Amino acid sequence: MREFIGNFSAYFTAGCLGGVAYALALWAMGHHGFTRWLGVDIAPYLSNAYLYQRIVWGGICGLIFLLPWQKSWLARGFFLSLIPAGIMLLLLLPMRGYGPGALSLGALTPLVIILACAIGGIAASGLLRAQGK
């Protein structure tokens, strides 16, 4: 039981770091005009509320790392990040009225979301690797 709680907290913490990386990546892409260059209408404002929500959800998504994965930490971070990206693109953003894949924000919105999620997933996986998990 102690090992499970230790793993649970390590994965949640790694997910929180991944959430910060995701939030900052998405903010930086909007702030520096990358999303506008792609024709995507995503440019979040960096605020405490913006960061807090993504840190908490990142921690929850970090529990995905409980799934067994024997490949490299880089591949693990990228491929497991596709799960929250898919949930956002196919469930959460359409529920907010942006349509399937949030395509009403721009044709390349899925690329931006997958890229930001991959940055967060790889950051979380890197932290777990550094911890030997």
TrEMBL record:
The chain crosses the membrane at residues 12-30, 50-67, 74-95, 107-128. Keywords: Membrane, Transmembrane, Transmembrane helix. This is Uncharacterized protein. It comes from Microbulbifer marinus.
